[in-house]
Amino acid sequence: MNYALHLVIYFDIFLILALSLNLIVGYTGLLSLAHAGFFAIGAYAYALLSLRLEWGFFAAAFTGATIAAFISLTVSLCSWRLKGDFFVMGSLAVQALIYSAAYNWNSVDAPLGSLSNLTNGPFGISAIPRPHILGLQVASGLPMALLATFVGAISSFIIWWIIGSSWGKTLVAMRDDELAARGLGKNTKLLKLQAIAIGSAFAAFAGAVYAAHVRYVDPSSAALSESILILSMVIVGGLGNFRGPIVGAAILVALPEILRTFSLPDAMAANLRLMLYGLLLVFLMLFRPQGVCGEYRVQ
Amino acid sequence: MQVIINGLISGAAIGLLALGFQACYLPTRVFFVAAAGIYSLVPFVAYSVQQATGSLMVGAVCSLLVSAGVALLLELLVHAPLDRRKAASSAHLVASLGAQITIVAAIAMIWGNQPKTLRQGLDTVTNWNGLIIAGAQWVTLLGSVVSICIFLGFLKFANLGLNLRAMAVNPKAFRLLLLARQKKERPETHSEQGGEINTSMPLSFERYRQLAFVSSAVLIGIASLVTAYDLGFDPHRGLNAVLLAIVAVIIGGRSTFIGPVIGGLILGLVRSQIAWHFSARWQEPASFALLALALLFLPNGILGDRQRLEAE
Amino acid sequence: MFFQENALAHKLPLGYVTSKERSILMGNSRSLVTFSRITSREASEVKSINSKPILSARNLIKAFGVKVVLDDASAEVFRGDICLLTGENGAGKTTLLNLLTGHLKPDSGSVFVHTHRASTRYSFSVNTLSFLQPWKSYSPTTMSNAGIGRTWQDIRLFPSLTIAEQVGVAFDKKCSMGRDLWSSVSRKEVDSLLDELGIADLANSRGDSVSLGQAKRVAIARAVASGAELIFLDEPLAGLDAKGIESVIEMLSRLVRSKGLSLVIVEHVFNHRFLDSLVTRELRLEKGKLSDRPLSVTNTVSSSEKTTASLGGFSPLVTSNAQVAVEQLPRGAVLTRIRHRSAYSPDAQASLEINNLVVSRGNRSVIGVDDYGQENGLSLSVRPGEIAILQAPNGWGKSTLFDALTNTIPIAKGHARIAPRLIAIPSDNYLFHGLTVRESARLSASPLDNRFESMANRKCGSLSGGEGKRLAMLALKDDAFWVMDEPFNGLDSADELLTRIDSHLAAGNGAFVLTPLTIYETNFEPGKLRIGK
Questions:
Q1: DSSP string, B105-125
Q2: Which residues of C touch A176 (CB under 8 A)?
């Protein structure tokens, strides 16, 4: 039972990540690899704020989202200057910088959370308190799963609403033909900035849920492999519509569980899983570049 | 001085890897991330062959053959079909990323995650007026510089190299050129001339693509072997190394073959300075900060021509 | 000049007259004429607006490298003007259009915009400190928001949005400025515009599924929806059949009448006659300068000019031992064959054989479509000793045909066969820029002659247009079939190439040339084969 709840929470987290990355990749056409960075920013922000300042869940999560939105300006800057593969590299640079900030921002002498030891470096932050909402502690198990599902549902609803709005249509117009969109008076730099900021803020929110659930964060949550995992989720499910990322998140949460039934040794199973992700990406690009149920192909 | 020498040596290895990446990227426009998988794979193959035969040289040659084979396979099974379908460049990138993940997972499954080393016993050290250069560093330096020179010379002077450069500069015109080279005999003249068969069958566009992939894989393999000989290896170091090479390509100028080499040297120098003055763990952030600066202020790189990155 | 316009106005159907008169009045503030029929309201409107042009460009200079496109060009467009922008092929009409809509920045000069929404002056100079004034940036976005819209030669509809959505997106200025994220244009507003412009039935079709003529009209509707008061139209009629042309013209005249829109139209000479009823001014771009030209009735080319022009510059090949055959192809294209009397034999195996060829770009068939939009396929053959010159209007699909013949894009139906080896020179981008001239010649195994010796070590990218073209021509060998797209483009003198072609034909080889149609012959009888000397 507890394990099933754990899966539900993981699905919620990946759902938010996939939907928010879809806003960037599927709706602005920018293949960003920085998403795990913003996820980690949210996780660290929640961890520090709840641990050091004893903030409640939503206050900490919102603060993390705001910080992520600000830092996402670096990705926007890349998107203004770079195209195609080189934007991917630019976003990768952002991701690498966030990762190394998480990895290196520590000092043995200073207390955790102080300016010289913000992230505790490679050791990560452990013993993160359980989330508090309105002063009440959310217990692990069902309450935590309800909280995650609540956040997931609200996020999904907001993203669904955004992509159906005229703003979402304008994003699609810009993705299809940026020059034509500019010729119709659209400020495409601002549109990209907005989309990237909103997407990153949601990723940070997912990070807060993750930190509250696992109660431990380390730099590996900002690693490139996390970004690739989220990206493959979106690409597998499909880009450019609402249901694609949901399907993608479901597939990539279910895949390890299916592998588990073969009762392989742990190291073997992990590698096999990665191998399947890789092959899935290759085969999708070859035979179904729009993903399982997407509308847009990566350009 | 010691720091600069160290920087130049590691820079040469980065430059070689960057050149290998560029050898594929320029002619085919495939962002060959799977090079990271090949980079990880090569020393493991060399290691196994070395264990079996006892000779590192045999291991090195075998591993280079394997790396060329893997690259050829990727081209034939993934990139050539994608190219035929006129897939976008990001589709190549994502597919290549997928291939990279697969290769690395396969390596970890076969050989495990533990770091290994190709070198046995202690390293010899040359001390020259207080400058210390280890034997493995000599291998890195010589291996890289010789490979770089051979490949650049091949591009400059050999006919095949010239064709590769032409393909890199203007693929569309290169296709037309190959079309003009094709000898299609007219039916009526064919009978008059009898059985005269054109011996020098011109290479097709697909062959040149394969050539690009194979030469890229060989360069990447050499770069991987020399660094593995110096520093040891594990399955996961490929992606970081290739990312670093891509940074070198962008800094040096991504429209030339020499640019990546220069970019690699600069990167090596900067990284050794960082390691000297601060700490080795700031090397990665410094490299990517350099990339960010280059992208924003020198988007065409040091040697790049004035082609614009942006739309329009 | 003034008299002519007056006469023209009277020729027009009544519906156009008001806007016509108004535009005459406003378009030429120098010539003060009043018509008794103009109401007092219109007169006051005239007074308030005609003092300032809606868009004025002063002393614009623009050069690409060594090629100067605009050299001190100035022009003004007044409210209600329907300008036809004319000029030779390659004179820089599209560049001018890009410059005036913010898609390119002039090297120097100034642009003054004076619309209902904005009144801004943009100055350009070589060492401009424009980055110090980010709010005054000269971009497509700011120009469009100021009310200067445009359409594109290649239309650029958003493929994954429906027509209603495209127009709605264009309507909604506010959302992209970020102030009103959730605002959504009421569907009614979009529908009423679509209805007004006669494209309401397309509302729910996707951008990539409408026909070319419909797409052109949607593009105009989109520009109108974005609030444009002056629209630059880049070849709005190119590639359309008669029915499509009619519906675009009808839509434009309706817009001019109901919305008082100003237009600047770049259109191929071939289609100018369709615009006669609309146009009030002609702006001529010549040698980098803009000048007003009196409105002329099109096709005023003398008959002698006509024959030479109809051969697209190949007339010197028509000598005493040449035969000429002309036939008309669908959608306004003309195929002229020049045959070398001694080398040509009608029984010989064709060097180029095209059978029922259909080629598509995206999901729209381009080649092999007849005047009525039927996919009948293109068929033609070229035999040894013959050069076939295909002259077609812009938008006909010349470059698509070139790409199909050179295996760059797939063929949808039918087939094309080229017997000996093929040497193809595209209209542009045929050089290997990073290579030296010597290396480039080595690639095509052609020896460098003495003209190139002095530049053998220069990079191909540094060659002038003419030098580059001559370098590309070095690769032409006699044992091949030649396909050339706009071969004279960039050449200072055609003589050398023509001599080359003549000996190529005399040696019993064939060639196929694609060129833009410069003069359209209205009195042409389709299918008639003329044998001349």
A1: HHHHHHH-S--B-S--SPPPE
A2: 158-161, 207
